Amino acid sequence: MELDGGKAIQITDVAVGVHSFAVSPGSRSIVFRASCCGGQPNERTLVICEFPTCTTRRPLHVENYAGGRVRWAPDGRGVAYVGADRQANIWIQPLAGSPARPLTHFSNRTIADFAWSPDGRQLAIARATTTNDVVLFKD
Predict the structure, then answer these.
(1) What is the pLDDT of residues 104-115, one digit of tens each?
(2) The pTM is what?
(3) Cβ distance 90 to 113 under 8 Å?
């Protein structure tokens, strides 16, 4: 929907979570996670399509994708995501087809979220340590 109102336009007919889509710099494209486009069932495939209709969808098969948060690279020539490798690093998948590469090289702690500054020169990363306790109650 345009910011000044008007009729809403449906962009896609698949369920897309709030953390699994992003609008490109310049607002011309969208990338989202979907199970479509010839992939295997439950395959984590990213799809790119053009605004406003999203009629032509291009699958972007990414290496090591854990699902969840996806962001455009500041220059719009790739997408960034948290890798499945213990979810400790951010990876970049170039749109030009070259292999994905790790952007960060952390060895521990899960990345909970990340975002670039508006000028694209800085990257903020929220990292966390998850702990779990098991308690047995008897009687």
Answers:
(1) 999 888 898 999
(2) 0.78
(3) no
